[in-house]
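Troubleshooting: if your tokenizer reports a length mismatch, compare your output against this known-good record of 153 residues.
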Amino acid sequence: MRRGLATLFNNLSPRGPVPPLHNEVKMANILVIEDDSSLRDTLRIHLSSAGYSVRVAADAAEAIRTILNGTPDLILSDVSLPYMDGFELLDVLRRDDSTRSIPVILLTGLVDDDNYVKGIRLGATAYLTKPVLRDELLKTIAGALRSAGKKQD
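Known-good structure output:
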């Protein structure tokens, strides 16, 4: 049934075909942290259509609550968040034993080298700039999950 839906989506999608679902990342649980509601919804739709289980949060506090209710396999976080930015959240996650190994991909409009270096030094798995192409995002997520050994049976 899922392959039938993917085929239907591929035929309807103006952005081209959805990458095939791979067993090693199928149904991985991704937490999207983005304060822009339309981008958050777009990311949720793209990731869900690619076979991921997606939870969303609008800020770091909501993200931490969500993580406490179930550790995600990967976190995709905006850097410019209200109250606590993505860098601060990443630092908190890397200091905690229960979240230290979760791959974190930072997604941001901050394109300068200093912010890129800061994200990588804090332990970001990847640093993508907005606007990000859907295929680039999906490839980065799949690679991060493979590198972290995150598999779903």
